[in-house]
């Protein structure tokens, strides 16, 4: 009887570890569901919108300008942020706020990206903390799931003029 109970317990633990490893790999390498909070990506992503973030792009270095990404916060490593990629390594970016009279520019260093929220007036982004290391990117948002009336692929940046072609 004890042998039977121990056998069932170890089988259960084995399956738990096995499926836990599969779930971990799926969420780490394939993607997952993310609930976004805060006003920095409005009007593209509203507070409490639910999106799908795929993680394969970051592993294959397929992140492009205009992509919306989930990133470990440079200010608080325990939290994630959602921002749009404005510049990749070597790109010239505008580092000043839209309201600044004199515009300043800089180049994104190797191994980094320049991130900005779509709501430029209410976003803490690379204009505050500088270029972000590529290694902090957790995934690329490709689909809005909730609310259902907004279900689908995300729209282009309302700040397309911030993308420089120099």
TrEMBL record:
Family label: Belongs to the peptidase S26 family. IMP1 subfamily.
Quaternary structure, from the entry: Heterodimer of 2 subunits, IMMPL1 and IMMPL2.
Class of enzymatic activity (EC top level): hydrolase
Keyword Mitochondrion: yes
Protein name: Mitochondrial inner membrane protease subunit
EC id: 3.4.21.-
Entry's localization field: Mitochondrion inner membrane
InterPro entries recorded: LexA/Signal_pep-like_sf, Mito_IMP1_subunit, Pept_S26A_signal_pept_1, Peptidase_S26
One Pfam family here: Peptidase_S26
Sorted UniProt keywords: Hydrolase, Membrane, Mitochondrion, Mitochondrion inner membrane, Protease
All copies of domain Peptidase S26, residue ranges: 16-97, 103-146
Active site positions: 40, 83
One GO term describing the cellular component: mitochondrial inner membrane peptidase complex
Domain of life: Eukaryota
GO BP annotation list: protein processing involved in protein targeting to mitochondrion; signal peptide processing
Molecular function terms, GO-annotated: serine-type endopeptidase activity
């Amino acid at each position: 009887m004890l042998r039977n109970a121990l056998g069932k317990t170890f089988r259960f633990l084995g399956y738990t570890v096995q499926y836990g490893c599969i779930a971990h790999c799926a969420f780490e390498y394939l993607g997952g569901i993310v609930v976004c909070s805060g006003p920095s990506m409005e009007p593209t992503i509203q507070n409490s919108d639910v999106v799908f973030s795929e993680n394969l792009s970051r592993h294959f270095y397929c992140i492009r300008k205009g992509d919306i990404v989930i990133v470990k916060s440079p200010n608080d490593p325990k939290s994630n942020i959602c921002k749009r990629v404005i510049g990749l390594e070597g790109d010239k970016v505008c580092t000043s706020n839209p309201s600044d009279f004199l515009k300043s520019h800089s180049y994104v260093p190797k191994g980094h990206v320049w991130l900005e929220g779509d709501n430029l007036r209410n976003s803490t982004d690379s204009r505050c903390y500088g270029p972000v290391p590529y290694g902090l990117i957790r995934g690329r948002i490709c689909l809005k799931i909730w609310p259902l009336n907004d279900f689908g692929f995300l729209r282009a940046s309302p700040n397309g003029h911030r993308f420089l072609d120099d």
